[in-house]
Amino acid sequence: MTHDLEAIRKGKILMLAGTDLAGTDLAGAELAGANLSQANLTGANLAGANLQGAVLRANLRGADLSGADLRGADFRNADLRGASFANALVRDASFGGAFLTGAAMIGNLDLSGVDFRGADLRGASLARAILHSADLSHANLSGADLSGADLEEAILNGAVLRGANLTGANLLCATIEQTVWDGALLDRACLQGTPLSL
User: Sign of torsion, CA 181 106 55 122?
Assistant: First the structure.
């Protein structure tokens, strides 16, 4: 299926399910509310794009989403391995079951209220991210960098934090039932209000 890329960039075509847009330059595109389910966006440039409320259950492996507006977007079960989210607006997005291995979520991202249930975040960079009330239940955060992250009131039930770096992280009142902490770095982490028993 071929589409006029200029029409896509201007938001005139929003039904893009199953479309092959691998490597396409969609920087700054107006795609709020677009349906990109099952689309191939491998290596696509979506920097600064407006994808607010979009359905992105797609292959976004290695995509550049830096500076994009992703508030309320649906990334459930998406392949986001190695994707860059630097300085993106991500609040209230859903990443349940998504593959985010090695993803770069840097730049003091506000991930408050984001759904990461069952997501694969192994080796992801979430340093200094704001994860207030984020749901990380059963997420795999093995080897992830959460140094300086704000996880206040986050839900980490059943999460795997094996070898994760939580140096200086704020876990104030986080829910941590059946969380796996083997080898996690917790130096200077705030654990107040948690039932943590190492």
Answer: negative
**Contacts of residue 8, Cβ cutoff 8 Å, sequence gap at least 6:** 16, 21, 26, 29, 31
CB burial string 138-148: b at 16+ within 10 A, e below? bbbbbbbbbbb
Structure tokens at 21: 């847009």
Contact 157, 139 (CB under 8 A): no
How far apart CA 91 and CA 108 sit, in angstroms, is 12
∠ CA 114-119-125, nearest 5°, is 75
Least confident of 2-6, 13-17, 166-170: 2-6
- Name the burial class of residue 182, with classes exposed (0-12), middle (13-18) and buried (19+) by CB atoms within 10 angstroms of its CB: exposed
Contact by Cβ (8 Å): 99, 121: no
Q: From the CB of residue 167, how many other CB atoms can be counted at a distance below 10 Å?
A: 17
d(CA 103, CA 81): 6
Span 130-171, pLDDT tens digits: 999 999 999 999 999 999 999 999 999 999 999 999 999 999
Q: Which residue is associated with the tokens 């079951």?
A: 97
- Look at residues 158, 188, 182 and name the one whose alpha carbon lies nearest to residue 171: 188
Short-list 37, 50, 44, CA closest to 10: 50
Residue range 10-29: mean pLDDT, rounded: 96
